[in-house]
Amino acid sequence: MNKLLLAGTALLALAQVATARDITVAQSSDLRSANPGVNRDGNTDGVILHIVEGLVGYNNSGEVKPLLAKSFDMSADGLTYTFKLRTDVKFHNGKVLTAEDVVWNWTRYLKPETKWTCLSDFVEGGAAHVTGVKAIDASTVTITLEKPSAVFLGLMSRPECGYTGMISSDSVAADGSFVAPIGTGPFQWDEWKKGEYIHLKKFADYVSPENDGKPDGMVGSKRPLADGIKFMIIPDASTVKAGLESGVLDTAEISPDLIPEFKSSDKTQLIVSRNNGKNLFYIQTRDKVLSNPGVRRAMAMALDLDELVAAASNGTGEANGSMVSQDSVYFDDTQKKRLPYDIEAAKKELAAAGYKGEPISIIANKRGNVPSFPAAVIAQAMMQQAGLNVQIEVLDYATQVDRRRSGNYQVISQSVAPRLDPALMYSFYVGNKDKNASLMWDDPKAVELMKAAYVEADQAKRQKIFDEFHELMLKEMPGIFLYDMVDVWGATKKLKGQPVWQSNARLWEVSVDN
């Protein structure tokens, strides 16, 4: 009863604002901080995305493109990047963006007292140690690195970094304390009623970067077509569903089990969007049983991956055995390769590996928005056909994360958030397990290839690195990659445009009919 009363109260609050020409979107938790890249989480990143912009940003295929910069160039030695700023960019307070603003922002980000989440990437010992930021003239700035880094621009563009967003110095008080984000994005900060909603207003003077008239990741056409955005804090899924059906919510993430209902409804629409995140079976390669690559290959060959993905994703996913996303510029024919579904070959691998029916436990959680549990159940049935003694252990998500971080597991069925550069995706899985027990694979050749991808900037040469990495992965099978993550959202019929990108609400070029 209390749950129903709370749901009703939330919907009444929504109804009071539904007549405005805002886009009203639900998210499961409140903003942690309005300070870009500081005290953040996924929901926070999604709000900040609309307010601030960096010098560069990712497009749909994972390439880094100019955003606040009109262009950028790298010196022959790979140490100096020169950014030519656009001259049509204004902050939300009306001030024009200049090179000095870029210097001020980078100086602030690199101060430890700012507590920037990404500081470790850009200081000594990081993947892209920044040694200098200099304004050459009003619209030209150079950033110098200690050593070449192919991931410098990609690191800058990450949600975790607050997109290394440029904010006006007026965002900070005289004593250095943060006040509110005055950015350059299509929407501007308006109001935050903690625990209830965050409201952003349309920035009337916003100008998109050069584009072909279509949204494209963080770049492309970014017109604010609505008067504002209201991010409602609604953790209860049943309230979200009721809000979408009644029309007082315009769009929100929904549970995949609602796909048939939203697909057939005359009141709502279903929005399915693939992102660069991964659904996979994370394997402990130091486990007594699973340290043998033959056992791991047998596990992979026992899976009818297409059937598993279709069932686990409610028909929304497409099998992909690569760490590289299908939407990436680096997803080529080599990345499409995967071990064949072959039960008899799997049995032979197990016999050659000396497998004697030892138990193998898959840890899963039952969060409704990820396929952890259903994927584990389907895999268990398939692997048993090859003679693998597979069991399932269901844990709450927090405990599952703790087990992975400590290395205390055999197999974990999990989902990993988007990382658009393949090298950054690799870094979540590959490295020294003695120093970081959460890593999956410590093969010396894999580590060497990952490090090479961090340095090599030439696209063709990077492609060869990623292809060699994938071939090695198929041989060693340190994990079984199932499919790219899928965002499942519901919306009213009145909503026009694509409101989600890479698991974040993205509400420019989106409108709602009156």
UniProtKB/TrEMBL annotation:
Residues 63-429 form the Solute-binding protein family domain. It is found in: Periplasm. GO terms for molecular function: peptide transmembrane transporter activity. GO terms for cellular component: ATP-binding cassette (ABC) transporter complex; outer membrane-bounded periplasmic space. One of its GO terms (biological process) is peptide transport. Gene3D superfamilies: Dipeptide-binding Protein, Domain 1, Dipeptide-binding Protein, Domain 3, Periplasmic binding protein-like II. Its main location: periplasm. The keyword Signal applies. InterPro entries: Peptide/Ni-bd, SBP_5, SBP_5_dom. Residues 1-20 form the signal peptide. Keywords: Signal. Pfam families: SBP_bac_5 (PF00496). Belongs to the bacterial solute-binding protein 5 family. This is ABC transporter substrate-binding protein. It comes from Neorhizobium lilium. The lineage of its organism: Bacteria, Pseudomonadati, Pseudomonadota, Alphaproteobacteria, Hyphomicrobiales.
